[in-house]
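User: Round two. Same drill as before: sequence, then structure, for each protein.

Assistant: Same drill it is. First protein:
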Amino acid sequence: LTVIGLAKRLEEVIRVGDPYPLFLDRNSQALKVLQRIRDEAHRFGITFHRSLRSKAAVHSALRDIKGVGEQTEQRLMMHFGSVARIMSASEEELSALVGHTLAERIKTQLGNEQ
């Protein structure tokens, strides 16, 4: 199995163990397929990285609140879908899920994060 990479700009095909790049015709179907594969792999990697960063931000914002553990965080996220929606929820809506004291604490803490 030969492992290759496609460098941007010059669109040169790099083969592992071969010091000389391979240049395909700019209009060739083979180059277009390799470009699509490269671009999709790049898009996938960026999307995954962004989701990790987003989850880490959500995790820290909620978990920094005393009384919010993994189960409470999951319950809130399942119900509201995002931290932004938790922040905009009324204290009464939060109280229905986590009780009055914790709802008050969540509103105060997330309000300070803005």
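Second protein:
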Amino acid sequence: MGRALRVLWQGSGDSRPVEGTGWMRAGIWGLAIPAAGLGLAFGPLETILDLPAPETAGTVAIVLGLVAALVGLALGWLVPVQRLLGPAHQWAESGLEVAGGLTAWIGRPAMAVARGCDRLEDHLYAAALAIGHTALSIARGGERLEQRLYLAVLGVGRANLAVGRWVRSGDERGIDGLIFALVAGVRDLGARARTLQSGLIHHSLAISAVATAVLLAILFSASLSV
């Protein structure tokens, strides 16, 4: 705190003009004045709001704390920081790191875990992408197989329909024609049989008539001779 006050009061020796310094000072004073005012008004505010009073430390503790604060401010104001810290100055400038500090104990492990998670995410993404491509290929293969099966079933159906039509045509033209021809032949054969049978009957009747006439003639001749 003393070192900071000295730098603020005297400057660091290599300061350069910065634009907007007035605005920054106005902002700092705008924060400092209300903070100081609230600090002074804290006691009356406690009384007005009837807040419980904080436990006060002993006089010795207060005096020792005040002395330590004044000594620290004096050392920071009067003694340069390199001389005050001595060999620990470089360590203090590096942030009081121990064996690499937060970078070695937290930052690097966290980065290693992050890189591992990143690689794992990449592997998972690649695996999911491969599974998606495989599923898409299987779906496309299934679709092509379904189309081929559909075409095969359609071809078999068309072939069966053609065979049915051919069988029907054969039934109508072949078997029906044969049946009709057989019926016509049977009818013709019956007609011829009836014609033949009628001719034979007439022939038999003629023979019978001739034989009867001859027999009657013989009998008549015999009766005349007697």
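The mean pLDDT is 78.

User: Perfect.
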